[in-house]
Amino acid sequence: MSATSVSVFVSSPDTHSERKFDLHTTIGQLKTRLEHITGITPTSQKLVLSRTEDGQQIRVLDDDSRPLGFYSPADFQTIQVVDLNPMGPAGMYSDVSQVEKFELSDEQYAKRDESLLKFKQANKFGRFADEHQQASAPAASTASYPDIKVGARCEVESEEEGLQKRGTVRFFGSTAFGKGTGLWVGVEYDEPMGKNDGSVQGHRYFTCPTNHGAFVRPERVTVGDFPPITLIDEDEEI
User: Fold this and answer.
1) Helices in the chain by DSSP H: which ranges?
2) I need a labelling partner for 216 at 20 to 30 A (CA). Which of 29, 121, 144, 169 fits?
């Protein structure tokens, strides 16, 4: 029995996720759906089917009337969504070069009465803890969280109600940042919900697309069979 759907990675300048599509969907219909994922309008999309492992181009999906299955995509290949109009709506929101930034020098920050720095100093947290506190603090152990393993699928507790933050565990252990503050779990999110690409303060812990990486406390991580949120799932929501 032949397959009627395919699971592929969708990659654009600002997004990267795994999706499942019906092979009978025309390229024109696919572009309309991809607009909701990438923010790129259908008329500005160029779709390229590529090998995921090295980005080698296989073919261009250039006929809007053809079904996706005509191009014989295989599971876990990548559909690259090229933006032919980078100054359009998608590019407009991703270009931050013209955004005025608020900057505060270290000296100005140190003078603030209400800040995280002042709180840590007052309570002797982190690098402000005395030697006796650091020596007596119990060492955290990954053995306390036997389910959290690199490569495991997981869901991260979110402060926003109804938001599902799913991904894959890419790192678990102590870090150079927040030294002495315990264990951190490095997660590669399925969607660009993170804050980094697996590197923090010049130290790389793992590699993932920009804004897909995040470090969270193990208490916020639940390991289990959490498949990526697919386009089919989204279409079922109203």
Assistant:
1) 27-38, 89-94, 106-110, 116-123, 131-136, 231-235
2) 121
Structure token pair of residue 90: 């998608």
**Phi, psi (deg, nearest 5) at residue 234:** -65, -35
pLDDT of residue 236: 47
- Domain limit, last residue, from 29, 64, 83: 83
Alpha-carbon gap, residue 70 to 67, rounded angstroms: 6
Nearest to 219 by CA among 143, 156, 160: 156
Q: Could you report the average pLDDT of every consecutive run of 10 residues in the chain (238 residues)?
A: 83 90 96 93 96 91 96 94 80 58 70 73 66 51 91 90 88 85 92 93 94 94 88 47
**Residue 96's pLDDT is what?**
56
| CATH number of the domain within which 215 lies | 2.30.30.190
Question: Given this model, what pLDDT does residue 1 score?
Answer: 46
| Residue 179 placed within a domain | yes
For residue 8, count other CB atoms closer than 10 A to its CB.
22
Identify any residues that bridge with 50 across adjacent strands, giving them in sequence order.
57, 78
Among 123, 132, 193, which residue's Cα sits nearest to residue 158?
A: 193
Distance (Å, rounded) from C-alpha 163 to C-alpha 31? Answer: 25
Domain count for the chain: 2
Q: 16, 212 in Cβ contact below 8 A?
A: yes
Burial of 75 (0-12, 13-18, 19+ CB in 10 A): exposed
Rounded to two decimals, what is the model's pTM?
A: 0.43
